Amino acid sequence: MEFNRNVLKNEEKAIFDLRALYSLYGYTQYKMSKFEAYDLYVRNKDYLVSDNIITFTDTDGKLLALKPDVTLSIIKNGKDVPGSVQKVYYNENVYRVSKKNNAFQEIMQVGLECIGAVDDYCIFETVMLAAQSLQSISEDYILDVSHMDIVSEAIEAAGVGAEEKKALLERIGEKNLHGIDQICSEAGVDGTLLKTLASTYGKLADVLPKLETISISEKMRAAIEQLTRMAAFLDANGCADNVYIDFSVINNQSYYNGIVFCGFIKGIPTGILSGGEYDKLMQKMGRKSHAIGFAVYLDMLERLQAEEKKYDVDAVILYDAGADVQSISAAVKLMTAGGKRVLATGAIPEKLQYKQLLKLQEKGLEILENNA
Is the pTM of this model over 0.85? Predict the structure, then answer.
């Protein structure tokens, strides 16, 4: 029997497609327990999407937590092997406050992590897989990419104090040009470069040549060159057109470095994918390896209103009491063979949404309603 994808919810389709995609590139599935020691999350609260954590006491008195995150567990339970790379993907339930209704929910999250001797190929492949992940959900997607070294170098060059640096980072994340102006004016420094970065947005091919003209340090030049090599890689793999430069994509500087990104699809107002390089998190957790990864937030896909989901079934076949069973079966078989979802019944269930209503007659099926 042929598998019918139409019976799947949007998030179920995404899991199916993403697992196949990641396996294609040599990623193996990572499985973990629902529980972790609570102190793992306490030590890294700033890294979590939400610091609301469900806790409970184990039988031995140890405080455990229902996992709000997968990456921390992968780092904790792995080890550094010089010269090698660990590539894993996961689809795990995490327990956190949902952005949708601000209440605790069990959320299915899919993602991948590349940990170890991470080089340019690993980084570029991860960004490509982030773009392809979005594309597998919707052809109408955008992956916004930034580079933390470019932003941090521009802020460092401003020559302001620690508090001002933090505030400037926030204003760049908000694309708040007036706020940048105000902070720089009060500090007596030039904010032109920072405002240029905050307002920069566009496709890789359009933005990268312009960035080369505003480079102010060796580190910034190296970051721009890396983005240029990444653009060539993405172009060769057919996904450069949907990748944009956006320096407002800023992840926590205490954990992230290098290339960071956020993904969007049409119909959902917030990002459904987030990731980047997180060497600083690795170091904070006692690891010497490099790392990059991302997560897809599948709970956001519930907002997508797929056309076929307006209907519970494609067709309802009504039959009278005492109708020939073989005739009913033949009619159902005829329609399901064409991939339609069919309900054969003596009476229409209350509130059922259907495209077609048909009546089984001696001479065949008679169309009573056609809502398609």
Answer: no
